């Protein structure tokens, strides 16, 4: 991902949309980044954000704009056209791939002692009993 720092105008717009960071200088974005689909999000430490410019369809044929809504993101990389919404706790120390959906979760964290199949593709579990997203 070719990345750049946020512009002062982008920071002002994100703040108008309810976003906060004590370390805006550590938030990096893709070249074609826009602020349109990031609302009510707190960023801390080094963050890399992709672009959020697509509409995806959730289970039940519900269309949504990709973006980050109502979340706390710490020391993470978020790929292009992810849909992250209503994170009750936070996401920390993660690299989230393109077009990932994370919705209505608590805490998602990786620590320095965490070991698992990072980079391995998995099938998600839909705990609501419907079909996969």
- Count of helical regions: 1
Uncertain segments: none
Report the order of strands and helices: EHEEEEEEEEEEEEE
Number of strands: 14
How far apart are the first and last residues' alpha carbons, in Å? 26 Å
Binned, the helix content reads under 10%
The average pLDDT value, as a whole number, equals 90
Structural class: mainly beta
What gyration radius follows from the Cα positions, in whole Å? 15 Å
Shape: globular
Largest sheet: 7 strands, parallel
Regarding quaternary structure, what we see is single chain
Q: Beta fraction of the residues?
A: 35-45%
Short description:
The protein is mainly beta and 133 residues long. It has 1 helix and 14 strands, in the order E-H-E-E-E-E-E-E-E-E-E-E-E-E-E.
Please give a handful of descriptors for the protein shown.
133 residues, mainly beta, seven-stranded parallel sheet, five-stranded mixed sheet, globular
What does this structure look like?
- With 133 residues, the chain is mainly beta.
- The protein has one helix and 14 strands.
- The protein has one helix spanning 8-16, and strands at residues 3-5, 20-21, 27-30, 38-44, 47-49, 55-58, 62-65, 67-74, 77-78, 83-87, 91-92, 95-96, 101-105, 108-109.
- Strands 2, 4, 8, 10, 11, 13 and 14 form a seven-stranded parallel β-sheet that branches. The chain has a five-stranded mixed β-sheet with strand order 1-3-5-9-12, with no helix packed on it.
- A hairpin with a 3-residue loop joins β6 and β7.
- The protein is globular, with a radius of gyration of 15 Å.
- 20% of the residues are buried.
- The model has no long low-confidence stretch (mean pLDDT 90).
């Amino acid at each position: 991902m070719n990345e750049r720092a946020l512009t002062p105008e982008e920071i002002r717009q994100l703040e108008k949309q309810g976003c906060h960071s004590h370390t805006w200088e550590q938030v990096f974005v893709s070249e074609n980044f826009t602020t349109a689909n990031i609302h009510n999000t707190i960023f801390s430490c080094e963050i890399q954000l992709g672009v959020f410019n697509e509409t995806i369809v959730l289970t039940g044929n519900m269309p949504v704009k990709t973006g980050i809504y109502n979340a706390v993101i710490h020391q993470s990389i978020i790929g292009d056209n992810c849909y992250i919404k209503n994170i009750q706790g936070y996401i920390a120390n993660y690299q989230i791939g393109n077009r990932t959906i994370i919705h209505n979760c608590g805490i998602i964290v990786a620590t320095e002692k965490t070991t698992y199949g990072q980079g391995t593709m998995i099938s998600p579990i839909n705990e609501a009993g419907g079909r996969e997203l």
